[in-house]
Amino acid sequence: MSADEKFPLEEVERCKQLARVEEQFPDADACPACADARKTSGDPTDLCKEHLRRMYGI
Ligand SMILES: [Zn+2]
Q1: What's the 44 CA to ligand 1 centre distance in angstroms?
Q2: pLDDT digits (tens, 9 = 90+) for 10-21
Q3: In angstroms, how far apart are the furthest CA atoms of the chain?
Q4: pTM score > 0.70 for this model?
């Protein structure tokens, strides 16, 4: 029984993506614009325009 069998691969990937966002933008959780973007889109990993801009490096 390996540890991998305890977690479906999709779940692991989802967690990794969430962790990646939090690593890059620890301040995004405290950003009101991000909270608003998440509420509007219903996507818990959504970011405001400013944070998206920084994420894509433009
Ligand atoms: Zn933001």
Answers
A1: 13
A2: 888 887 777 766
A3: 45
A4: no
